[in-house]
Design a protein that fits this description.
With 168 residues, the chain is α+β, with helices and mostly antiparallel strands. Keywords: Acyltransferase, Transferase.
Length: 168
C-alpha cells in the first residue's frame, strides 16, 4: 500500500512548497525564488502528500521548446528520502512530458546519481541546432540560460551538472 499520493499543485500549496524547499535553498542545493515566481509556475508543479495530507515532495516540469522540458525544483523532505517519493515525482513529470509531446528532459542538478538512475546523462558540451539556439537565447528564463550554459548564469550553477534524458 502506497503511503503517499501525487497530484497537481494548487495555489494554496505555494507556501508549503516554499517551506519544503527552504532547507535546500539554505544548503545552496536549490536556488531561492520569490513567491510570485512560484505562483506564476504553480500549474507546472506536482506535489506529493503523505496519508495525513502533509506535503513531502514537489517537482515541476517547465516547457522550454517544442521538444524540450526542464525538471525544476524537485525536492523531498529529509525524513521521506529513500522511500520512493522522488521516483514517483519523476515518473509523473515524465508522464506529463510525454503527454505534452516532449522528447527530451533537461535538469541542472547536484543529485547526479538520482537523475542517472532515471536515465539522465551528463550533457557535456552538447549544443542545440543553431536556429533553435538563436530562438532560445532570446528567452528571459534562467533555466533556458542554464540549459544553453550561458556565461551570465555560471556563478549560480557552479558545481551543478547539466543533464539530459531522451524520452522513448
Amino acid at each position: 500500500m502506497q503511503e503517499f499520493s501525487v497530484r497537481r499543485a494548487r495555489t494554496t500549496d505555494v507556501p508549503r512548497i516554499q517551506a519544503l524547499v527552504a532547507p535546500l535553498v539554505q544548503e545552496r542545493i536549490l536556488l531561492g525564488k520569490e513567491s510570485v515566481v512560484f505562483y506564476e509556475a504553480v500549474q507546472e508543479f506536482r506535489v506529493i502528500e503523505d496519508a495525513d495530507g502533509t506535503l513531502i515532495g514537489c517537482g515541476a516540469l517547465h516547457v522550454m521548446w517544442e521538444d524540450l522540458g526542464e525538471v525544476r525544483t524537485l525536492a523531498v523532505t529529509a525524513d521521506w528520502l529513500g522511500r520512493g517519493v522522488g521516483h514517483a515525482l519523476m515518473d509523473r513529470l515524465e508522464g506529463d512530458a510525454r503527454e505534452l509531446g516532449l522528447s527530451r528532459l533537461f535538469c541542472l542538478t547536484f543529485e547526479v546519481p538520482f537523475f542517472a538512475r532515471h536515465g539522465f546523462t551528463d550533457m557535456g558540451n552538447e549544443t542545440v541546432d543553431p536556429l533553435v539556439y538563436a530562438e532560445l537565447v532570446r528567452s528571459h528564463d534562467e533555466g533556458v540560460a542554464e540549459f544553453l550554459d550561458l556565461a551570465r548564469v555560471k556563478p549560480n550553477t557552479l558545481g551543478n551538472t547539466r543533464m539530459v534524458k531522451r524520452l522513448v
